[in-house]
Amino acid sequence: MATVNTYLYFNGNCEEAFNFYKSVFNQEFKFIGRYKDVPEAARQNFPFCEDEHIMHIGLPISSETILMGADIIDTKGEESHAAKYFSLYVSTDSKEEADRLFDSFSKEGEVKLPISEQFWGSYYGICLDKFGINWKISFSLE
Fold first, then answer.
1. If DSSP states are collapsed to H, E and C, what string results for the chain?
2. pLDDT digits over 85-118, tens only?
3. Within this chain, do residues 12 and 65 fall inside the same structural domain, yes or no?
4. Domain of residue 57, CATH code
């Protein structure tokens, strides 16, 4: 069976974002690779990435899920609008865990839909974290 995991791209602040996610999920990184580790022949593919930028990082969230990311430097100086087109959906094992995650992600971010009991039987909320990533946090009440 195939698994689907999320890969996030950042414009130079991947390490800061993943240190934040590490603290929220209380997990340790599986792998951290930097552009300085990329073989010289391949470095031409990443001309605007500095040595200490993140080439690949992996943070296990559960036994079947890993959050991954990298820095891809935008030389045009434009902000990414990718967060408008996707959200990360996290199903929790308890209402308390849902509250903890929602509070952590929305701190210094923006609450889009306050977490509360919904008509379809979920405890659910939507927020944008301080890095511009949409999070949907849910706990099934049934």
1. CCCCCEEEEECCCHHHHHHHHHHHHCCCCCEEEEHHHCCHHHHCCCCCCCCCCEEEEEEECCCCCEEEEEECCCCCCCCCCHHHCCCEEEECCCHHHHHHHHHHHHCCCEEEEEEEECCCCEEEEEEECCCCCEEEEEEECC
2. 688 999 999 999 999 999 999 999 999 999 999 9
3. yes
4. 3.30.720.100
